[in-house]
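Subject: design request, 238 residues
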C-alpha cells in the first residue's frame, strides 16, 4: 500500500497508509477498535474501494478500476471474526464451495482436497457435520481451512479469535503458528499480544488511520518509541 486513504463520509478511516508485506511474512496489526485495522484488510481484498493511493499485489496495481476484483480475491484468503459459514452445508461443503464454484475444480478433486485440508487443521472427523454442531474454535478452523484450500498467495485474518471463548482461542492461534512455520504469507489483526510477540515478523500499530509505529515485535511490543503505542499496550496489559 502506498498513500492509501479511505473515508466513509467525513470519517477518515485510513489516512495515507504506507504498508508492505513480503512473501512468507506474518504481519500483525494492532491498535484500538476503530483505528482502521479491519478497513485496511478490506481495502487489500478490494471489498472496499480506496479514495486515494495505490495497492500493488504481486506486481499489479489492483486499485486500477479496470482490474477484475473477483480474480484478485481468488488469489487471497480472507477470514472474518464471525466465521460466516453456510449453516445448510456440511463442513466439507463449506470448505469446497469456492473450489467448485469459483475455481472450477471437479467435485471429486474438490472433495479430496477439502478432506486433506480438514485433516491439516485437525477436523477430518467433522467433514460431514454441520457448522452448528461445532464449537466456535472448530468453526473458525473450518473458516481458515476454507480460505487455505484454494492455495492463496496471501491470507488476511480479521480478529479471528475475538468472537471465541477464552478457552478456544489457543487452538486457533496454534493453527496460525503452524501456518507461519509453513511459510504462509499472513496479515492479521489481533489483540493477542503474546501471539504477536512470538509469531509476527512485523508488528504495525495503527491509531486514527495512521501507522504510528512498525518494526519487529521486540521493537514495537517490547520497546515502543511512540507515546500512543505505549498507552495502547499499557491498556491491553491492564
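Subject: RE: design request

Done. Sequence follows.
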Amino acid at each position: 500500500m502506498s498513500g492509501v486513504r479511505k473515508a466513509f463520509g467525513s470519517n477518515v478511516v485510513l489516512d495515507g497508509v504506507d504498508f508492505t508485506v513480503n512473501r512468507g511474512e506474518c504481519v500483525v496489526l494492532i491498535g484500538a477498535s476503530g483505528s482502521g485495522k479491519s478497513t485496511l484488510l478490506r481495502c487489500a481484498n478490494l471489498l472496499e474501494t480506496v479514495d486515494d493511493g495505490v495497492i500493488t499485489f504481486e506486481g499489479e496495481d489492483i486499485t486500477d478500476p479496470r482490474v477484475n476484483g473477483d480474480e484478485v480475491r481468488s488469489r487471497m484468503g480472507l477470514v472474518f471474526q464471525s466465521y460466516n459459514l453456510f449453516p445448510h452445508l456440511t463442513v466439507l461443503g463449506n470448505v469446497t464451495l469456492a473450489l467448485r464454484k469459483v475455481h472450477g475444480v471437479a467435485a471429486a478433486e474438490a472433495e479430496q482436497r477439502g478432506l486433506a485440508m480438514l485433516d491439516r487443521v485437525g477436523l477430518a472427523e467433522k467433514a460431514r457435520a454441520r457448522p452448528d454442531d461445532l464449537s466456535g474454535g472448530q468453526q473458525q478452523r473450518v473458516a481458515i481451512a476454507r480460505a487455505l484450500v484454494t492455495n492463496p498467495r496471501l491470507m488476511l485474518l480479521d480478529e479471528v479469535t475475538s468472537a471465541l471463548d477464552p478457552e478456544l482461542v489457543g487452538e486457533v492461534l496454534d493453527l496460525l503458528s503452524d501456518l507461519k512455520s509453513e511459510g504462509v504469507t499472513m496479515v492479521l489483526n489481533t489483540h493477542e499480544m503474546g501471539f504477536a510477540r512470538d509469531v509476527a515478523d512485523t508488528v504495525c500499530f495503527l491509531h486514527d488511520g495512521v501507522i504510528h509505529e512498525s518494526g519487529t515485535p521486540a521493537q514495537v511490543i517490547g520497546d515502543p518509541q511512540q507515546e500512543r503505542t505505549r498507552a495502547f499496550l499499557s491498556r491491553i496489559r491492564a
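DSSP finds nine helices and eleven strands in the chain.
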